[in-house]
Amino acid sequence: MRAMALTPELIARIHRDEPEVGPLPGTTPMTDADFAAGVAWLMGGLPADDDLHVFAYGSLIWRPACEHEDQTRARLTGWHRSFCFRVPRFRGTPDQPGLMLALDRGGSCIGVVQRHARARAADRLERVLRREMTIRETPNQPRWVTVTTADGARRRAIAFAADRRSFLYCGHQPAETTVAVLANAIGHVGSCAEYLMKTVTQLESLGIHDPYLWRLQDQVAARIMAETEAERGEP
């Protein structure tokens, strides 16, 4: 397979510093009590004879919320990766929201399950929730799912999946819309293009090829190239 078109050099072309804008007006920041309740609810679904497993399909692979004992490839059926929710913070701004990956209904997704020893499960789960959820209205909600690991075993795991009721959920977008957003949106933690590049790079290093993301990185790279060369007046 050829090398990725979306490179750090291209990402550097669009870099700019953006201020932290804070939570959106009308949203409710998560509290310590919210996280404690979330941990208690999710731990109630932990199988009696197993460790805690978290299904990672995006940035949790290349920037885990905390340490884990090990990880293994796994497939989740009934859900697929999709840039289906808007982010007016972190990798976007209110004036130019970004798009983030979530699991949306339909198809399947290959990722990894990260194993957390049962004795450490509650503490680590809270750290994962604090990483993934900053406001109560987040469209990326935790839920129990069943995955199939590379050796054919079925295992219960927690995954963060799209809540279509969220006002930030935008569903499937035309490819040209998604590409335009990913090539331009930037927030205080970085660009959407960087997020895409790191996700594809890590998946490929694990032997996981996602055709949807591979096409996007190719298209986003071409868009950045064209737009930055036009700004420079290059032919």
What does this structure look like?
This protein is α+β, with helices and mostly antiparallel strands and 235 residues long. It contains 7 helices and 7 strands. The strands form 2 sheets. The protein has a 5-stranded antiparallel beta sheet. Strands 6-7 form a two-stranded antiparallel ribbon. A hairpin with a 4-residue loop joins strand 4 and strand 5 (154-162). Helix 2 packs across helix 4 (121-132), helix 5 (175-184) crosses helix 7 and helix 6 (192-205) packs across helix 7. 35% of the residues are buried.
List strands and helices in order, with pairings.
Blueprint: H1 8-13, H2 32-43, E1 52-56, H3 59-62, E2 70-87, E3 98-116, H4 121-132, E4 140-149, E5 154-162, H5 175-184, E6 186-187, E7 190-191, H6 192-205, H7 211-232
**What string, H for helix and E for strand, traces the elements in order?**
HHEHEEHEEHEEHH
Largest sheet: 5 strands, antiparallel
The CATH homologous superfamily is called: Gamma-glutamyl cyclotransferase-like
Radius of gyration: 18 Å
General shape: globular
- As a percent range, the share of strand residues is 25-35%
CATH architecture heading: Roll
Please provide the count of β strands: 7
Q: Considering DSSP H and I runs of 4 or more, what fraction of the residues is helical?
A: 25-40%
Total domains = 1
Would you tell me which CATH topology applies?
A: Hypothetical upf0131 protein ytfp
User: Ends: how far apart?
Assistant: 29 Å
